[in-house]
Specification:
With 117 residues, this protein is mostly helical. It has one domain. Helix 1 packs antiparallel against helix 2, helix 1 packs parallel to helix 3 and helix 2 runs antiparallel to helix 3.
Length: 117
């Protein structure tokens, strides 16, 4: 393995570019399907950066944005690159969190989990 192959972010960069694209299409998905802020990504995407659910009810898993955003945070933790976090990572992570905040629903009164989200 060449030294350049071990540089922080070299392997991550294609994922980060994909997340920047999905941040845009996923915002449309969050608004259209859930009336939520932020962005959502279901279990399946492709070259065209689709973010909507596919393949029937088993294709509904809108937590992909939050799940993949972890890589942005891990990159920052590994590199300490505050410019990366400020300019690229944080906006994507923040909007993934906004989706989850809007998507949460309080448990109904009388249920075992009443008072919880």
């Amino acid at each position: 393995m060449a030294r350049g192959d071990r540089e922080p972010g070299r392997v991550h960069e294609p994922l980060f570019r994909m997340l920047e694209d999905l941040h845009v299409t996923g915002a449309k998905t969050a608004q259209t399907y859930y009336r939520c802020r932020g962005w959502a990504l279901h279990h399946n995407t492709d070259l065209w950066r689709a973010a909507a659910p596919v393949d029937g009810p088993w294709g509904i898993w809108p937590m992909g944005a939050a799940w993949l955003s972890q890589d942005l945070w891990e990159h920052y933790q590994f590199t300490g690159d505050a410019d990366f976090l400020r300019q690229r990572g944080y906006p994507i992570m923040k909007d993934a969190a906004l989706f989850i905040l809007d998507f949460l629903t309080p448990a109904p009164e009388g249920s075992r989990f009443a008072g919880n989200w």
